[in-house]
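Notebook entry, structure prediction.
Reason for the run: the old model in the group folder had no record of what sequence produced it. Starting over properly, with the input documented here first.
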Amino acid sequence: MADISVDTAGQDIEAEQAKAARLATRWKWLRRFAILLAVVLVVVLLWYFLFARNHVSTDNAYVNAELAQVTPLISAQVVEVNVKDTQAVRKGDVLLRLDPTNPRIAVAQAEADLAAARRRFRQTVATSAALTAQITARGADITQAQAQLATAQAEFEKAQIDLKRREALAASGAVSGDELTVARRAWAAANAALASARGAVAQAEAGRTVAKGELAANDALVARSTEDTDPGVLAAKARLEAARLDLERTVIRAPIDGVVAKRQVQLGQRVTQGNPVMAIVPVGQVFVDANFKERQLRRVRAGMPATVTADIYGGGVVYHGRVAGLSGATGASMALIPAQNATGNWIKVVQRLPVRIELDPKELAKNPLRVGLSTEVTIDLSGA
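New structure, fully documented this time:
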């Protein structure tokens, strides 16, 4: 019995020791976990206060650019195509050539119209000189008519005196009836000649008045003008410049540096004025449109520094830039489908507002981006 009691007591002691060991181990691991949890909490707090609270990030961001649409300014047939999609071009490089036949004909017609306008101006100036001489001649005609009027007036007065004398002597029989009749006919003829002379004077004066009016009207066409400033000549010059401009527009050049995209023109095709034939993407001037949630934008201001990584290069390539500005409207407000349904019930959804990030041109030149690539953007809120 004594041996059995000793064994039982030994087992109890061993069990207590094992329990104490397990409890000590548990407390050791609990302390380790508490220390680890405290370290993690400190790290999280440090990360939040040193980085997270002063940075906002989003992966809803894409590369964008202000594309240059190439559109012909005249309608014509394509006779030469010098570029293809993905080809890099410089500003001023020839992209297309259009058939110049019709514009050349228009230029020749405009040049002929300009020459005719100059000739008309010179003719008008010469007409003014002729009308001035005509006015002088009409003045001489008036002088001559007035002299003839004076002669007719004298003849009339003489005939009238002769008639009165014969009428006074007719009663006494000193003058025959035939002689009296002759005197009366002479008076009538002199009266008619006087009236004719007066009409000639009036006609000559009227002719000079007409000539003066024609001169005034002709002078009005060239008043305060030279051959180069005449309105008709200027209008013809404008038509010639327009024709020459249309001829220049048969050669379509690149408006900016960039890469050709969406080429929609082939040799022999007739292009229409105003319809795009290709686009030029300025890969050296791309930017990023980052769609941040509205609650992330409380402290975002223009000028804040930002970092961008692109999926095409991964995290090893970091672009640096600045906030250029915030869009004036959210994407939902500009969408074709309205945010509310047909009954007008509004469903609140967290909105995203595009923020434009301008990138460093040197970094873009080293690692070019293309429009539409996905990126991740982080804005430093403490760097304003």
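Summary: Residues 103-245 form a domain with the Helix Hairpins fold (CATH 1.10.287.620).
The old model has been moved to the deprecated folder.
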